[in-house]
Amino acid sequence: MTLSPTPRSTIKRGKNRAATDRSELYAVLDAGLVCHLAVVVDGAPVVLPTGYGRDGDTLYLHGSTGARTLREAAAGLPVSVAVTLLDGIVYARSVFDHSMNYRCAVVHGVATPVTDPAAKSHGLRVLVEHLSPGSWDYARQPTPRELAATAVLALDLTEASVKIRTGPPSDEESSSAWAGVLPVVTTYGTPEPCPLLAEGTAVPEHVSGRR
Amino acid sequence: MTLSPTPRSTIKRGKNRAATDRSELYAVLDAGLVCHLAVVVDGAPVVLPTGYGRDGDTLYLHGSTGARTLREAAAGLPVSVAVTLLDGIVYARSVFDHSMNYRCAVVHGVATPVTDPAAKSHGLRVLVEHLSPGSWDYARQPTPRELAATAVLALDLTEASVKIRTGPPSDEESSSAWAGVLPVVTTYGTPEPCPLLAEGTAVPEHVSGRR
Asked: A61-115: per-residue pLDDT in tens?
């Protein structure tokens, strides 16, 4: 199935960077950890970072039931969600052609509150397993009260676009200047135990082995 | 000077994570590389990643003069800009208290097109020096035609908020489970020369020494 079924999800600038296969959308969403969610509040845009998770063609978002942005998003108003991965700084011969290598997915749609308890628990599991794979079965699962305090939204991935830039700078002018790409690399550091842990508590494999 | 002069830039959820000093806003903006810019197009929010740079209390944004999002932002409509740095995954004893350590700045306002040639050149310099410090003087500077093809917007940083989470998980319940923080670390890799470079072109210090 291909991407970009509507005008607003069709990339017009830099078409050569537009991905057209749905698998590329999944790959970007699965590689990111934070999304930026935009809603309209009192006629003005508000953008905030939040966690997310993907299951098939559904993107799950969550947050406190008291958060206004989430309430607006849950009220059936249109939302836009972007997930961006920065891969490198592109140094060109000209200032004008300096750029970034990146992968970016943008989703448009209307989010639906997930209220059915089983469906909500599933959505939370997807969210938690995206943020911290292995945690759902390892940590204590939500109580009914915790479930009630969490809003889960589902956003359909039908209307989405993906833009990807890779490779060296695009300018070819004659120059003695260095040009190329400085990769931006994101990795995990050494786990930092909570000070309240009993001494000798081992770091579980789903944390220590995370790559 | 303190932050949060208006209701929409005053953090209501997680007040204990709200930074109140303007220097913390500068620090987050200066540490990030990509911002997410949200505008309202046909009544719906659109969020896209873009480069930026800061000079004092002005945030500069730029892009092609043909990009619709930028045209909307330049038309005097309200915008929202977020810069988010992910610092760690917070593994708690409970799924509910899993979280992220992050620093996030959100700016609200109306962007102004920078059209005066000297001011535009200054704004571009700020943008380029944020993306790639040292490049403005090292690479070829923009021609009048390149300047004309680039839209530069200025956004005042008056109306902004900063939210920061640091430290271990917040749950204290009795558990034998491991809890703590897995740091997320972003670094630069080994510079990748453009294939068109003359053999032996040295990597300049502003690239090889970047940290």
From this structure: 987 666 677 777 778 889 999 999 999 999 999 999 999 999 999 999 999 999 9
Using a CB-CB distance cutoff of 8 angstroms, which residues of chain A are in contact with residue B89? 33, 131-132, 188
**Nearest-CA distance A182 → chain B (Å):** 5
8 Å CB contact of A45 and B45: yes
Q: How far is CA A192 from CA A79, A161, B53, B100, in A?
A: 36, 37, 33, 13
Q: Which residue among B37, B124, B182 places its CB closest to the CB of A191?
A: B182
Token code pair at residue B91: 């593994």
pLDDT digit string (tens) for A14-27? 767 788 889 999 99
pLDDT mean over A119-144: 96
pLDDT digits over B3-41, tens only?
766 777 777 667 677 888 899 999 999 999 999 999 999
Find, among B98, B81, B82, B79, the residue nearest to B90 by Cα. Answer: B98
Please judge whether B106 and A188 are an interchain contact, meaning their C-beta atoms are less than 8 angstroms apart.
no
Instruction: Given the cut 0.90, state whether the ipTM is greater than it.
Output: yes
Domains and CATH numbers, chain A: 7-208 (2.30.110.10)
Region of A134 please: left (phi>0), alpha (psi -120 to 50) or beta. left
Residue spans of beta strands (DSSP E) within A92-204: 99-110, 112-113, 150-156, 160-165, 180-188, 192-193
